[in-house]
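Dock glycinamide ribonucleotide; give full complex structure.
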Amino acid sequence: MQVFDNYSNFATMKRIAIFASGSGSNAENIIRHFASRPQSGSVEVIVCNRPGAAVIDRASRLNVPVEMITADDMNTPRRMIEMLDRYGINMIVLAGFLMMIPPYLTKKYEGRMLNIHPSLLPAYGGKGMYGRRIHEAVIAAGETRSGITIHTVSEICDGGEIIFQAPLDIAPNDTPSTLEARIHDLERLHFPRIIEQYPLP
Ligand code: GAR
């Protein structure tokens, strides 16, 4: 249910589509965050490109609709824009979404699309760098620090403007999976709040 206190709220209210391909722990945290603060926004839809991804069940349990898309859908502007307009989306959040966003969409949502990346960009970013692979590479390189980056989405993979980073010290006994768990904790702590506070253009 939408709660509109007044017109200024209506103007700034975030109507969010979360794009996700995997487990969806971030998607779930963001849905819960906005469900408890309906005056600042709401997650209207989850957009998913991987049949069977755990995010689908999480969204269903939380009563958020899921739109499944293919690569063909993504590359058909009319289809994607019609779908996003149907939900009145004014902000897109990428949370573990493993498909490239085509330029027509980065342009349409310029300054209105955020991504979270589980490293301190520009380190360990770029094509092929996602999820557990990043943590394996970070540990293999003997790094003593990693962290999270939240950035706007541009046509360049993991490019865009960095709007937030939080570092974390790597312990000598950290493994890729302990590091991944600690990174997820950091994401849970910060991502929903940064989305809420991010000023839409
Ligand atoms: C998150 O750690 C996110 O930062 C990462 O995928 C994970 C998704 O977890 N994103 C990337 O690696 C993007 N390059 P989740 O499905 O449990 O939210």
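Observed: The pocket of glycinamide ribonucleotide is lined by residues 20, 22-26, 95-96, 116-118, 130-131, 183-184, 187 (CB under 6 Å).
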